[in-house]
Design brief:
The protein has eight helices and 15 strands. It has helices at 20-38, 51-63, 74-87, 101-106, 112-121, 149-159, 167-177, 236-248; strands at 11-16, 42-47, 67-72, 90-95, 123-134, 137-141, 144-148, 183-189, 192-204, 226-232, 257-262, 264-269, 274-277, 280-284, 287-300. α6 crosses α7 (167-177). It starts with 10 loop residues before the first strand and ends with a strand.
């Protein structure tokens, strides 16, 4: 019984992207709002119009001394996380999108109504925040930043209007696979040069992306480092055979996959790629990825 804690009523501002998950967030919002008000929270609900608007709403919530609760997909959660970290506030997260990979990684789960319990009974912990810096500025992220095959898949997913739910990631992976040719990736990991020809370079904070793929199975948001996953050239058949292994995290046993810890990663390639993080394009090459250790206070399930 010593591990149990009494629920806490908080002053919350729900920053929700109603379009997330093809409207999933909007459909679930009435039930979420009822659960939060039923738990005794002082709640303000503010739908977003854009990522920039989410920054504005988070700033207003922090100025009012509220916990900022991001509800939507990983993109808006990562964006709001950056604003909350900069403002010295506390973040809560409710899943409302398609992938919700940050919620998977930290044990919040995919049911936003059930996740409301974390806001009342959870534990405030300091976690790491990734930052992508490129010619277009700086962008925070919680999950994984990637270039190469991974970012090409995200481009396909972003442009898809097919009603596939989480299967849209599998669709994107197979569609890109058919036309993929190896790319040469160069840069540095904490100042040490790397040169890889193959599929992708991914820089992981929480380690999960693409609707449950455990790309960096040992990644932690509390270790003050990033896990850099590089995948060298293999045949399409070998790559396709390895694809299911990513959901279990066992792909890292393959000779073509390397996982190296780093705190600063410089990304370059032999052809143009946009950098994707938390499912959104956040910059273009060349880019640098760094980690802000313990920069964000967030309500998480108790250990």
């Amino acid at each position: 019984m010593s591990g149990l804690r009494s629920p806490v009523s908080r002053r919350l501002q729900l920053v929700v992207n109603p379009a997330a998950g093809g409207g999933r967030a909007a459909r679930l919002l009435p039930r979420v709002e009822a659960a939060l008000r039923g738990a005794g929270h002082d709640l303000v609900v503010t739908p977003t119009r854009s990522l920039e608007h989410a920054d504005e709403l988070a700033g207003l919530a922090l100025a009012d001394g509220r916990v900022v609760v991001a509800m939507g997909g990983d993109g808006i959660v990562g964006r709001v996380a950056g604003a909350v970290a900069d403002g010295g506030g506390v973040l809560g997260v409710l899943p409302g999108g398609r992938g919700n990979d940050f919620c998977r990684a930290v044990g919040i789960g995919r049911d936003p109504v059930a996740a409301c319990t974390v806001l009342a009974c959870g534990q405030e912990r300091a976690i790491d925040l990734g930052v992508v810096t490129s010619g277009t500025g700086c962008a925070p992220f919680l999950g994984i930043a990637s270039i190469g095959y991974d970012s090409a898949v995200q481009e396909r997913v972003l442009g898809s209007r097919l009603p596939l739910g989480q299967l849209v990631y599998l669709y994107g992976a197979l569609a890109v696979l058919a036309r993929w040719r190896p790319a040469r990736f160069t840069g540095t990991l904490d100042g040490t040069a790397y040169d890889v020809t193959g599929w992708a370079v991914a820089v992981a904070n929480s380690g999960v992306y693409g609707g449950g793929m455990r790309l960096a199975p040992d990644a932690s948001v509390e270790d003050g480092r990033l896990d850099v996953v590089t995948t060298s050239a293999t045949s399409r058949r070998q790559f396709l055979r390895a694809l299911p292994e990513v959901f279990r995290g066992t792909h890292v046993r393959r000779d073509s996959v390397s996982v190296v810890p780093a705190r600063e990663v410089v990304l370059q390639a032999d052809r143009p790629f946009r950098v994707f993080a938390d499912g959104d394009p956040v910059g273009s090459l060349p880019a640098t990825v760094t980690v802000r250790a313990a920069a964000l206070r967030v309500l998480l399930p108790r250990r």
